[in-house]
Design a protein that fits this description.
heterodimer, A: 89 residues, mainly alpha, Non-ribosomal Peptide Synthetase Peptidyl Carrier Protein, Chain A, 52% helix, B: 443 residues, alpha+beta, OB fold (Dihydrolipoamide Acetyltransferase, E2P), Chloramphenicol Acetyltransferase, 2 domains, 5-stranded mixed beta sheet, 22 strands, 28% helix, 24% strand
Amino acid sequence: MTTATAMNKTEIRGVLLEALAMIAPEADFARLTPDANVRETLDIDSFDFLNFLIEVDKILGVETPEADYGKLNSLDEMVAYFGVRAGGL
Amino acid sequence: MAEFRMPSLGADMEFGTLHEWYVQPGDRVQRGQVIAQVETEKGVIEVEVWEEGVVTQLLAEPGTELPVGAVLAILQTADEPEPIAAPEKTAVSTLTEPHPMDQKPLVAKANGRTHPRPKISPAARKRAQELGVDLSKLTGKVIGLTDVEQAAAQKAAPATPHITPVARKMAEKLGVDWQQLTGTGNHGAICKEDIEQAAQPEPTPEPTAKPAPQPDPADFQTGMRRAIARAMARANADIPHYYLETRINMAPALAWLEGENLKRPLKDRLLTAVLLIKAVARALGEVPALNGYWRDDEHQPQEAIHIGFAIALRQGGLIAPAIHHADLKSLDELMAALRDLIMRTRNGRLRGSEMTDATITLTNLGDLGVEKVFGVIYPPQVALVGFGKISDQVWVENGMIGVRPVLTATLAADHRATDGRIGGKFLDLLKKYLEEPAWMGDA
C-alpha cells in the first residue's frame, strides 16, 4: 500500500476498529455489528468521540467537520465516509 | 513545625491507604506540591501539601491504612530555622494553580507575605501549562508569554528525571536503569508503576519482587459504591432539596460553536460541555449564594468558583473533580482543563484539591438519551446543575411555532441555604447566557 492508492475497505475498517479500541478499551466489540450505532453500542460520549476522530485523523489524514458527525453512525457508514476521503484527493 | 495529615478527600471518606511517598526527609516542599499518593475508595489520589517547608520525618509507611486526620509526616515550615544543610533536590516544578484554591469564605485575604496577585494573560497561562512553569514563582504585575518562556528556558537546565523514593529503591532492587525511563507520575516523576513496568520484560523476575498489586475491579466497585452510598444517603437525609428547571433554545449557542470549531483543527475543537461550564460559571458569579457550602449549620458562599464536573467511569461509578477557577478560564483553557481532568479521572491521577474543592457540581447526562436530570447535591455543597440531552423540540418564539434544539437545565438546591427565587434567578441567567452567546467570543 502506498499513500497514492486509496486504502481498501478492509484496511479502513481495521484503522477504525483500532482507534475505537484505543479510546474504549473496555468496550464489548462483539456487539458491534456493521450497521449498529457505534457510539451507543460502545458507550462512547462526545469527549471520546472527539478523541476517536483525532486518532483517525492521525492515521488517515481526514479532518472530519462537525457538520458530518451525523454521517458517522455505524461502522459501515464510517467506512464509506472515510473510504471516499482517505488516500485519494 | 507542621503536621501533614491524612486528608479528607470528600464527604464520604473515613480512611485512606498511604500508597506512595513522592518525597523523602530533607526534601523542600512548596504549597500545592503533590507529595504522596493515597488510595481511597474512589481510587488513587495525588495529595498536595499546603505548607511550605522541609520534610523532616515520614511517619507513615506505604501500604498502611489510616483514618482521616492521622499524622503522616512532619514538616519544618519556612519561618523556622533551616535544618542542617537540606540538600537542594533536582528542582521539580510544581504546576499548581496560580492561586492555590482558597477555601476561605467571601472575605478578602490580606496576607502580608504574598505579593499582590499578578495579572496573567491567558496565553501565558496556557504556555505555562505546556512548559510546566510554575506561575506562582514568577514576579511582576503582569505576566506575559515572554516571562513564561524565559522561566522555562532557565528551568530547562539538564536535569535527571525526578524519581520517588519508593521507586528508586524498587529500581535498585530490580536492577532497572531508571535514568532511562519517562515518568508517568506527577510532573513526569518516575513512580513505582513505571519501575514495575520497566521491570516486567525481565525474563526471570526476582522472586522477592511481588507482582504489582493490581486493584481487584470487584473490590474497587464495592468501595466506590460504598463511598457514593454514604455521600448520597447523607445528602438525602440532611439536605432539603428543591428543584427548578428551564428549557433553553440552544440554536444560537450551537451555531456559534459550529462556527468556532470550523476555525479550529480537530484537536482544538470545543465540546458543548465547555460552553455549559462557562455559562454556569458566569451565572454563578452573579448568584454567588449557590456557590459554596452548608457547614456547621451555616451557609458559606465561596468567592472562588470551582465547578465539580461529574465524570462517569467506564468501569462504573462516578467522580466529580473540580475545575478550579472556572470563571477565570477562557473557553480554550476550560477545554484543556476538562480534557486533562477526564484523562486523569480515568487513569486515577486526580489530586486531593480536585476531590475536595468543588463549590458546586455540574452533571451533564446529555450523551445519554435523557431529557432532564434531577440531581442529588454532593455535601457540603448547596447546589447541583443538571443538563439533559439537546433534542429537537417544538418552540414558540414571537408567536411563531418552530423547531429548535432544546436543552433542559435543572437546578437542585439546598433549601437551607437558598430559596426558589435565588435558584430561579440563576437559571434565568444561565438561559440568557446560552441563548445569547455572543459574549463567549470574548470570554
